[in-house]
Amino acid sequence: MNRYTKYTLLGAVILAVIVIANLKITKQNEFGLILRFGKIVKIIREPGLYWKLPYPIHERIVFDKRIHTYDTQQTELLTKDQKNIIMLTFVTWRIEDPVKYYNSVGGDIQTFQSKLDSLVNNTKNLILGEYSYSDLFVAGKEANKLNEIEQKIYANVQESASMLYGIHVTYVGIKRLTIPKENIRVVFNQMRADRDVIANKYIAEGEIRAAEIRARAELEGARMVSEAKKKASKIRGQADAEAARIYAEAYSKSPEFYEMVRSLETLKKVTGEKTSLILGTDKPPFDLFVEKPEVTPVDH
Known about the structure:
alpha+beta
């Protein structure tokens, strides 16, 4: 093998090593940037095998495109009614524009998290200034405004982070909400007062409901009594008419017997167990007390 062939093979090997050394794989969960002397010349958004020139001509930077979670610093904030609270929030985010992200923070995640922390804390100060103590610590999810506050912080942070850093914020949540020790008594008194208001509301509504039920019951009772009296009056009238018919029928069949029965009924009504009467016996119905002599028929 001559010297020329040796140099050629050596050059080919060196070139192959350089080519292989500068073949890079971009994964499914990555963004890639190719820089030429510090200036971005290529953006790699899709996974695959890519080649670049050797460093320092080309430099390759890779960013994780998956969702990141970051707990912001615990901060003490001031409410609308000038009360202090301590709030800890968390943010979930992912890179949306790798070029803007690189140009704004140099691709360093620690630098970005520091900027994100400042952005979130400034937003919390701004939003919390619109709400009072009772909006945060009132009992019940429906009553307090925490969800509304989270949504406002999220909307503000998402817009600013996208515009400044090329970041898509997927969620901002309140992780912990506490109060300074010196304000605990004030908060407990406020919560107790809020519960008293709710309890009094329920009591008042219950009393109104009870009054409505009683009124309906009394009205229904009066209606039922009226109908019962009407029905009783009708039955009594029918009974009286039937009794009169029976009396008339009895009288027509035996007037003497009828008069005797009626006289006995009258005596029963006017005399009691210990009744003493001085009455004449020559008039009915008291003539019943007098024994009448038997009349013996005389044959002619």
